[in-house]
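Holo model, S-adenosylmethionine. Inputs:
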Amino acid sequence: MSQDNIVDTSRPSAGRMYDYYLGGNHNFEVDRQAADQVLKLLPFAAKFVRLQRWALQDIAVELTEKRGYKVIVDFASGLPTNDHIHHKVSKDTTVVYSDYDPIVVEYTHEILNNTTNAYFFHSDARKPDELLNRPEMQKILDNRQKVAFVYWGVSAFLADEDISHLARVLYDWAAPGSCLAFNAQGAEVPDNPAVEQVMKIYEQMGSKVTLRSLERYRELLQPWQPDANGFISLLEWHGFDQSVLAKEDAQAFGPLGGGYGAYLVK
Ligand SMILES: C[S@@+](CC[C@H](N)C(=O)[O-])C[C@H]1O[C@@H](n2cnc3c(N)ncnc32)[C@H](O)[C@@H]1O
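Output:
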């Protein structure tokens, strides 16, 4: 399949801009230009994105080594490069990635190549039932319904009704004891003209960004409930060394960076 057939390179894509912030090379000039505009407005955005991505590796270890899950189903995965979940888990853990961006689809098959415990599906995170009900998924899952779901780095791109729908679908599908690792992006962001401009850039690309309070996230995610640790700011996410941030970054990060993460449980 040629890239020209499946990828619209005439306008930037949020997923490819994310790859650019992370220092990857799966992006085009149009993405780099838009991302540079964002970085001009929010110079710490690249660090924030790396923090968000780093948390995924921590989640991989937490879910498998500490919480004992053998199946991780990750939605809106982006590219499963070597900083992603399957690199951090043992070979007997099954990892299922998915994304709806054609460029992710194209490159993921190359990236995963001969990886035996990681799978990828082209799928819309707003409709998790479509992924879970696929015959290939049912074969992979082999009746295992006590699983860990991951929605990381995507919530700001989802509408309220998408979040409440996906939360309900996953809850109804999953066996008791299942978990949902969820990143509440853009929570508690104070009014900031630079953020508003960045939101406009994304909106013009067709990727509307929604900021919401933690309270709103909690309502939308019901009936899932956060575990005893509740929602934790990514700045306080276990193991993150805040000394790597410059003073100005730390100040800017406080209200803006990465939002919050939680392990929600059934
Ligand atoms: C900011 S990246 C996050 C990637 C990864 N989850 C992480 O935290 O590093 C957002 C990804 O979500 C994908 N995405 C956004 N909306 C989606 C949807 N409705 N269904 C599937 N993927 C989606 C984009 O294509 C992009 O790859």
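The chain has a mean pLDDT of 89. The chain is about 45% helix and 15% strand.
Archived with the compound record.
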